[in-house]
């Protein structure tokens, strides 16, 4: 009898992702938008990495961290968008238990890594504005590489305990996930076990990740703003603020959506609302990050313009 009960609790080996089944026209429109934005994201982030690698003027710690962010966002988008498009097209709505767990783990790990990278970039802005004369010695190549490595390491370690707890959950049916990706709320909704420990671990993990990164970012910007306000000339204040304005915009959008999705004591809320916020967070927000860092960054725009002019002149030369 006990063996039969155990088999019943572990017989779910794959899940079915629904996407947006109740609105076909919205789903088709979303497929086009996701495909276009995905292509723009990949091309844009690869271009940023290529620009930084080929222009010596951009070989600074700030752009090294931006390359890390671009590299992360390529994989963060790739981990969910192609599968989400396949789900909404109806060509690949099933996903194995292992595949679902891996998608969940990589999405949350890279999301946590992005939080730490944004905090490191805030600290970099603090050093550049508050200690300009000592910046090159304080933020040297070795230290910036160590900070980037620590961000990746902490991001993946932060989700490891939660992933282990999820592997111990039992799923005895149904196996339909009301989402276009494997989300923590969906795991909890489908489990036939007590999930309070998983929910508590998720809350603690999210709280720690956001708290540490938010404190570093907040303290850095308190010092940045106080330093900018002490600059006597308006032109000097504007130049100093332009150094970190793009980063501040990205941080506000990223933390706002991330805290709404993950820092909550219970996961039993509207999955439809979570799907909408996830689309905004995964697709729109990350694309906004790309445009914010390029269109609001004078050095990147100059490097991009120089590259485009060089390509055009090479085509025109017989």
Low-confidence runs of at least 5 consecutive residues: 1-9
Shape: globular
What is the count of β-strands? 3
Total DSSP helices: 12
Helix proportion of residues, in percent? over 70%
What is the CA-CA span between the terminal residues?
Answer: 82 Å
User: Structural class of the helices, strands and pairings?
Assistant: mainly alpha
The major β-sheet equals:
3 strands, mixed
Rg, Å, rounded: 22 Å
Mean pLDDT: 79
User: How big a fraction of the residues is strand?
Assistant: under 5%
Strand order, biggest sheet? 2-1-3
**Order of helix and strand elements from N to C terminus:** HEHHHEHHHEHHHHH
Describe the structure using short key phrases.
disordered N terminus; three-stranded mixed β-sheet; 318 residues; mainly alpha
Descriptive report:
- The protein has 318 residues and is an all-alpha fold.
- The protein is 77% helix and 3% strand.
- The chain is built from twelve helices and three strands, in the order αβαααβαααβααααα.
- The chain has helices at 2-9, 24-54, 61-78, 81-89, 97-130, 135-138, 141-167, 184-190, 196-229, 234-262, 271-295, 298-316; strands at 14-17, 94-96, 176-177.
- It has a three-stranded mixed beta sheet.
- α3 runs antiparallel to α11 (271-295).
- The radius of gyration is 22 Å and the shape is globular.
- Residues 1-9 have low confidence and may be disordered.
Topology record:
Elements: H1 2-9, E1 14-17, H2 24-54, H3 61-78, H4 81-89, E2 94-96, H5 97-130, H6 135-138, H7 141-167, E3 176-177, H8 184-190, H9 196-229, H10 234-262, H11 271-295, H12 298-316
Parallel strand pairs: 1-3
Antiparallel strand pairs: 1-2
Helix pairs in contact: 2-3, 2-4, 2-11, 3-5, 3-7, 3-11, 5-7, 5-9, 5-10, 7-9, 9-10, 10-11
């Amino acid at each position: 009898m006990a063996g039969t009960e155990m088999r019943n609790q572990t017989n779910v080996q794959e899940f079915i992702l629904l996407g947006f089944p109740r609105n076909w026209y919205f789903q088709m429109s979303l497929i086009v938008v996701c495909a276009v934005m995905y292509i723009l994201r990949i091309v844009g982030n690869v271009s940023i990495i290529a620009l930084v690698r080929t222009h010596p003027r951009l070989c600074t710690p700030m752009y090294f961290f931006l390359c890390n962010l671009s590299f992360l966002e390529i994989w963060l988008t790739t981990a969910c968008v192609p599968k989400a498009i396949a789900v909404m097209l109806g060509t690949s709505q099933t996903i194995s238990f292992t595949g679902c767990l891996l998608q969940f783990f990589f999405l949350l790990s890279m999301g946590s890594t992005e939080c730490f990278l944004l905090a490191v970039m805030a600290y970099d802005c603090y050093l550049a504005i508050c200690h300009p004369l000592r910046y090159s010695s304080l933020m040297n190549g070795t230290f910036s590489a160590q900070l980037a490595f620590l961000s990746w390491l902490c991001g993946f370690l932060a989700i490891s305990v939660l992933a282990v707890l999820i592997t111990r959950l039992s799923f005895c049916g149904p196996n339909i996930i009301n989402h276009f990706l494997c989300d923590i709320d969906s795991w909890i909704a489908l489990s036939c076990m007590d999930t309070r420990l998983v929910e508590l671990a998720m809350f603690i993990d999210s709280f720690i990740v956001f708290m540490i990164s938010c404190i570093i970012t907040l303290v850095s910007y308190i010092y940045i703003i106080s330093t900018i306000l002490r600059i006597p000339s308006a032109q000097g204040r504007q130049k100093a603020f332009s150094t970190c304005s793009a980063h501040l915009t990205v941080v506000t959008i990223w933390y706002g959506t991330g805290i709404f999705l993950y820092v909550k004591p219970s996961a039993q809320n509207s999955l439809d609302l979570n799907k909408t916020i996830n689309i905004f967070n995964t697709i729109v927000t990350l694309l906004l990050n790309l445009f914010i860092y390029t269109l609001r960054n004078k050095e990147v725009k100059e490097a991009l313009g120089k590259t485009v002019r060089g390509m055009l002149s090479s085509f025109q030369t017989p």
